[in-house]
Amino acid sequence: MAYSPRIRRALGLWLAAWACSTALAQTAPALRVEAVATQMQSPWALAFLPDGRFLVTERPGTLRVVEAHGAVSAPLAGVPPVAAGGQGGLLDVLLDSDFASNRTVYLCYAEPGTGGNSTALARTTLAADRSSLQDVKVLFSQQPKVASSAHFGCRITEGRQAGGQLDGTLFLALGERFSRKDDAQRLDNHHGKIVRIGKDGNIPADNPFNTPAARRDGALPEIWSYGHRNPQGMVRAPDGALWEIEHGPQGGDELNVVARGRNYGWPAITYGENYGGGKIGAGLTAQAGMEQPLHYWVPSIAPSGMDFITSERYGKAWVGNLVVGSLKFGYLARLELSAPFGGKVVRETKLLPDLGERVRDVRQGPDGLLYLLTDSPAGRLLRVVPR
Fold first, then answer.
1. What is the pTM of this model?
2. Residues near 334 by Cβ (< 8 Å), separated by ≥ 6?
3. Residue 372's closest CA among 38, 46, 30?
4. Catalytic residue among 151, 191, 247, 295
């Protein structure tokens, strides 16, 4: 049967759409969420214990163990004092890579003190019965302290060499405390910085500003990069590259691949604007000597936790993708990259668009599935399952 050119064109378009939808069905499985635990008080971060349990921080200052079947423990004893209020409190948690043998845990939190508060990083040991923390030692305390309840940053990751091997260091992302945004461009303070320290609190000799000349100029030797606003997610790619996301003001959330000694621009350059409108500073989006984001969001999605997908639980096409939680819109963003675990962002897809809850943390679990924490006074730990 012969078809008219118009019908042939319509059939061609339909076949192309069918092929496209088939390809999408193969690469974008339908997802559902399972509630692992509920009724937690503003949970902020989670870690996976080797026995199948979860360690979860709550912003008011409590740390809890969640059983595999969802039962939530009483607050663990021994948590250091925190400045709970606004965005402050007990924030990130990270298990040491040798946790199975040393039971070491790292905590990031808002630390009270003279003059206000600041972000701090502590090392501690989880008791064998999981009821308390022991031998808490503060490894780092952001200076100076500020009377503020905003922009603590506070994500932790272990350092890796270019080949991906652990190097015995820790990276800590620090906010510029909102009222001190201009500090992010100065190296004599810790506001708006990513710092790198040893697991014992020492300063690595190969940090970019740990040189006699830099110290003479007043630069703090623990600084790794600067010009950040409020980092809320940070993760290491398998090749060792450090990826970071941070909140912009009104628009201008950024995804950055962070390199040693680089300036990421805030507040001299930004794709956002002041709350209520109006340019920030000179209103520039680029300037010599300052890095451009790999990807940015306008309007802001208020990105928080993020992780790379390394498992095939959602299909091979998802391996090497980055997933990012949105606080503002309550969904999970899947970022497809031009190369697995690297390159440019080539496509962004909204996952779980009807979730309707602030996604605070995103982690891939040992089972290869994604786990989310929703940030509310009755927050939940969720497991993301392909249908």
1. 0.92
2. 318, 321, 322, 323, 348, 349, 350, 351
3. 46
4. 151
